[in-house]
Amino acid sequence: MEVRLAKKLGFCFGVEHAIDMAEKTLAERGGPIMSLGEIIHNPQVVEALSLKGLKVANDPSDVDGTVLIRSHGEGPEVLSELRSRGARIVDATCVLVKRAQKIVAGLANEGYRVIVIGQASHPEVRGVCGYAHDVICVDTPEELDRLPAGGKVGIVCQTTHSLEHFGRMVGLIVARGYSEIKVVNTLCSAVRDRQAAAVELAQKVDVMFVLGGKQSANTRELARLCAEQGVDIHHLEKWSDFQPEMASGKKVAGITAGASTPKWIIEEFTEKLRAFE
Questions:
Q1: pTM for this one?
Q2: How many Å apart are CA 130 and CA 123, to the nearest integer?
Q3: Measured between alpha carbons, how far is 194 from 260 in angstroms, rounded to an integer?
Q4: Which end of the chain has less Cβ packing within 10 Å, N or C?
Q5: Contacts of 245 (CB under 8 A, 6+ apart)
Q6: pLDDT tens per residue across span 183-235
Q7: pLDDT tens digits along 48-91
Q8: How many domains does the chain fold into?
Q9: Do residues 62 and 117 both lie within one domain?
Q10: Where does a domain end: 45, 76, 94?
């Protein structure tokens, strides 16, 4: 069948940087190191790096020796605990996440009550919220009742969200009538490019395949945006998840992939889908 790829898809620079740092550190150390949490939200990459010696620790108390701070970053309290335990920290935090962390700290220093538009359970958001006191995290209109009744508020956003969602939430917050509001766009440009390319392609195909980890927030957002275009979509991690009925009767298929999806998964899926009849 005819298969078209989104103009922008797959690994972003932040993910590439984290993986490069992990592989370089493993080579230098000549033995196992630890990652505090999975380095990225892609099980295939996590498994491949595990075979090379990158072990996952889920709590700072489990860390021993060298520890990699993943692309999502960590809050200052976690970093402080790691240092107190004598850990050697290799910081692979994405530069755009670091920017968001600094902005949150700066807003708090300027007297703003910080609001983060994002998923409270997401590791990036948890880390960012650690850079100021009493940060409020909201991600849906139903959660806006958590916000203070008045005063000065500063607003940032989870880097992997869509511009559409950020704008909608900011509009709802502004409507609450605060005396002063400062909004800083902390969205990732690479994620925005992938979202725009996915939407453009979804409007031109019969079925859309979104490749990436099920836990990947930016991949789930790609799937949501493609579904809004009215096309059939399937969020899959790899080719073995494909079922023939997904493409049955379709002439043109589109493929996009999250920012944590490796090139080899995209290439394998594309090659085998093109051979599908």
A1: 0.89
A2: 11
A3: 12
A4: C
A5: none
A6: 999 999 999 999 999 999 999 999 999 999 998 989 999 999 999 999 999 99
A7: 999 999 999 999 999 889 999 999 999 999 999 999 999 999 99
A8: 3
A9: no
A10: 94
Residue 106 belongs to what domain range? 96-183
Q: Find the Cα–Cα–Cα–Cα dihedral 161, 167, 168, 171, rounded to 10°.
A: 140
Cβ contacts of residue 56 below 8 Å, gap of 6+? 34, 35, 37, 38, 46, 50
Distance between the two ends of the chain, CA-based, in angstroms?
A: 6
54 phi, psi to nearest 5 deg: -90, 110
Domain of 62, CATH number, reads 3.40.50.11270
Domain check: are 35 and 113 in the same one?
A: no
Which of 183, 198, 233 delimits the end of a domain?
183
Using alpha carbons, select from 96, 222, 103 the residue that is nearest to residue 162: 222
Catalytically annotated residue among 74, 124, 221, 237? 124
Q: What is the CATH number of the domain that holds 154?
A: 3.40.1010.20
Can you give the pLDDT at residue 277? 73
Do 107 and 175 have their domain in common? yes
- Residue 124 annotated to the active site: yes
Alpha helices in 134-188 (DSSP H): 163-174
Q: What 8-state DSSP symbol labels residue 57?
A: E
